[in-house]
Amino acid sequence: MRNELDQQLASAASEAQAAAQTLDGSAVAPSRNEPDTAHPSASVSPQAPAEERPRHRCVELGRAVVITSGKGGVGKTTVTANLGTALADAGKRVVVVDADVGLRNLDVVMGLENRIRKHSLDVIEGHASLDEALVRDRVRKMLALLPAAQNRDKDEIAPEAMRALVAELQERFDFVLIDCPAGIEQGFRNAVAGAQEAIIVTTPEVSAVRDADRVAGLLSGAIAPKLILNRIRPQLVKRGSMLNVDDVLDILRLELIGVVPDDKDVIVATNRGAPVVDIAGSETGAAFRRIAARMLGEALPIPALSDRSPWFARMFASLPFGKRSSTRGS
After folding, report:
1. Cβ atoms of 129 and 80 closer than 8 Å
2. Using CB atoms within 10 A as the burial measure, which of 55, 87, 189, 257 is most buried?
3. Hey, how many other C-beta atoms are within 10 angstroms of the C-beta on 190?
4. Residue 153: which residues within 8 A CB-CB, separation 6 or more?
């Protein structure tokens, strides 16, 4: 009897211990194949292994710089072509974008007019891919041109479309240089739409400086523009017949990143469809290369331009009979 009683007590104790463990939940592990519905957290799937997780590409976007002026004929296209060339020579992937729809000239300055098959509007309208429209430079593989349409109108492009196009180019290139058309109408709005930086080009003429000031006012707030003073003639500045650098800076109050002298080399290079930076000994070409270096962060001083008029002209001007007298009959 005693043995039977002991066995019954032991059996009851064992069942009670098992029941307690079941209620506590510590003795029951959820199956890998069956979810544990008792705990809400069990319904969340475990983190995927590293090789199965989606990979997000971190794309470092290039710099989009619009080159503008307001006034036409101050040399924006020449500046764009030569800065693009100098930056490509520095090892940067560069695309120059002609935003002057209907009046494109950047292809001529770069000597690529015979290689154009598609243009930016073809890309925007879905008639061509970006690769089909881009024209690689003949010499520099790091430099490309995106031409504008020659027989279309600026109003056919919306700023939003231009912004998307520039953003796509920024994923491929280190620099996107946008050659802005003259004026402040639709073409200007399209050109600046996708840019995060701006360079204003002006010449030391009152009308050009006034237009540059107007453009700087339109850009203020969104973009802090920098200034290139183009076509300086030291001999005219010396005679007081042309505004000097300080005069222009007092009016515009912009950060100056370069002064480019007026030089016949620019005309020669443009007619050849070649950049002036390739002309050995050209002071203008050297000025463009220094500007490109400053865009890359180099702290280069802006040198004073020398008077490059012929020696006999300088000598004649220094002689008494070479100077015009202010009085008559003396």
Report:
1. no
2. 87
3. 29
4. 101, 102
Tokens encoding 233: 């003639």
Say how far apart CA 250 and CA 312 lie, in whole Å. 34
DSSP state of 197: E
Instruction: Transcribe 124-163 into DSSP letters.
Output: HTTSS-HHHH-EE-SS-TTEEEEPPPSSS-GGGS-HHHHH
Dump pLDDT digits (tens) for 203-260: 999 999 999 999 999 997 779 999 999 999 999 999 999 999 999 999 999 999 999 9
* Segments of 48-112 assigned E as strands: 63-68, 94-98
| Strands across the sheet containing 255-261 | 135-136, 143-146, 94-98, 175-179, 63-68, 197-202, 226-232, 255-261
Q: What is the pLDDT of residues 168-216, one digit of tens each?
A: 999 999 999 999 999 999 999 999 999 999 999 999 999 999 999 999 9
Profile the chain (330 residues) by mean pLDDT over runs of 10 residues. Answer: 47 47 39 39 38 48 96 96 98 97 94 96 96 96 96 91 97 98 94 96 97 93 92 93 95 97 91 92 96 97 72 48 41
- Rounded to 5 degrees, φ, ψ at 28 are -115, 120
Read off the pTM. Answer: 0.76
From the list 266, 324, 320, 258, the residue with the least C-alpha distance to 294 is 258
* Calpha distance 108→75 (Å, rounded): 14
The two tokens of residue 267 are 């005309």
With b for 16 or more beta-carbon neighbours within 10 A and e for fewer, the 205-228 pattern comes to: beebbebbbebbebbeeebebbbb
What are the structural domains of the chain? 66-298 (3.40.50.300)
